[in-house]
Predict the 3D structure of the following.
Amino acid sequence: MQILQPPDWVRPRGYANGVVAKGSLVFTSGQLGWDGQGQFQSERYADQARQALQNIVTVLAQAGAKPEHIVRLTWYVTDRAAYLEQAKEVGQSYRELIGHFPTMSAFQVSALMVDGAKVEIEATAVIPD
């Protein structure tokens, strides 16, 4: 994987401007912050974000992919204030579970399709040839 960083651009913090990768593509559906049995263990945004990231790691493993193969994440959050207030805690979980910064987009949405869900995260990974 090659990170794309135009030389005259300010370096982004917490994401990459672009990525080039070759290999097998792996796509996850949006992962919520619930456990494998579809139960929320917490109502807190940071806890649900950590669980959603763990769910992504678990799904990717089914294809033989690892967190370092992730090239894109898309975050949907229901509460921008919680996203910002708990960013340090989420960042710690993120570094522990994912460990690198691929391309990312984040959106505040009015609600997710599952009651009680605070965050949904989609991932795209590329397993090198």
The helical segments are 45-61, 80-85, 87-97. The two ends are 11 Å apart (CA to CA). The beta strands are 2-4, 18-20, 24-27, 31-32, 70-77, 103-108, 119-127. The chain is about 25% helix and 25% strand.
